[in-house]
Amino acid sequence: MGKPTKRSVDVVPVTSSSPAVLPKEQAELFRDVLSWFEKSGKPYAVAGAFALREHTGICRYTKDLDIFLSTENATEALACLQRHGFECEVCDPIWLAKAHRGEFFVDLITGMSNGVISVDSCWIERAIPANILDIDSRVLAIEELIVSKLFVTRRERFDGGDIAHLVYGSRGKVNWDRVMELTGEHWEVLLWNLMLFHYVYPAHADLVPKALWEDLMARFAKEVRSPDPKAKFRGSLIDNAIFAIDVEEWGLDDVLAESRSRRTQIQLPVRRSA
How many other CB atoms sit within 10 Å of the CB of residue 83? Predict the structure, then answer.
């Protein structure tokens, strides 16, 4: 399943998009944070718009710099960034902290907001070299980048288009065994995104191995033929606002709370007085 498939296009598609010109203060903040991570040796990888550009050539403006790292390393990084004069806050201890300087900031991300997927050392070890704003850095490998976007399914933000672009731009070189390993029991969300890819790029179904299509479709057919009457409601993992009524008024399972409760939390270091 993990063997790359051959595609008819031999290069990543060329785009007319070009890197956005960031405000000077914002670019300096991004460079300073990346330089600090590189010099300190803290394990990390960049995701978001910079990683998408590296894998697809698509450039778009980004208001923040997404840095992926483990929960333990995020807590340590916050302590160090505080000592370097950054204002730090933990926005959601399950997955997100921010380091501010003036009106600009970087995001420190340790997993998905629903707690289903978390970043570990393997994500960082598999990251690939990239030059970001003239800093030698690294971005998530395409497999981790795809998985990081699976549950970005909110009404106000949907990353299915990014996943379609990543698959199309991959030249068939995605390690799907790795994607399946990270996706685990949530394979239906992967299938959902791959169905969107197929709808958008019907002539390029072969960029996803036939064995993977057959495996996922067979699983789905089995689930439809013999649904588990004890299976839990999972709508809140997709969007807890859209499916709030199901949990709060109809009494269905709060799988989101269960998932988040199992995750280690980012800790904001106490600022010590001089």
Answer: 11
For residue 107, the Cα-to-chain-centroid distance in whole angstroms is 12
Instruction: Note whether 116 and 263 are within 8 A (CB).
Output: no
Q: Is 10 helix (H, G, I), strand (E, B) or coil?
A: coil
Contact 191, 220 (CB under 8 A): yes
Number of H-type helices and E-type strands within the chain: 12, 7
Please say whether the beta carbons of 119 and 69 come within 8 A. yes
Per-residue pLDDT of the chain (274 residues; tens, 9 = 90+): 544 333 333 455 566 555 667 889 999 999 999 999 999 999 999 999 999 999 999 988 778 899 999 999 999 999 999 988 999 999 999 999 999 998 899 999 999 999 999 999 999 999 999 999 999 999 999 999 999 999 999 988 999 999 999 999 999 999 999 999 999 999 999 999 999 999 999 999 999 999 999 999 999 999 999 999 999 999 999 999 999 999 999 999 999 999 999 999 999 875 554 4
Q: Side chain identity at 191, as an amino acid letter? A: L
DSSP 61-76: --SSEEEE--HHHHHH
Residue with tokens 């697809």: 56
Instruction: State the distance between the two ends of the chain, measured CA to CA, in whole angstroms.
Output: 57
The ranges assigned to domains in the chain are 24-227, 231-262
CATH topology of domain 24-227: Beta Polymerase; domain 2 (3.30.460)
Q: Is 265 helix (H, G, I), strand (E, B) or coil?
A: coil
* Partners of residue 139 on adjacent β-strands: 46, 128
224 φ/ψ angles, rounded to the nearest 5 degrees: -70, -40
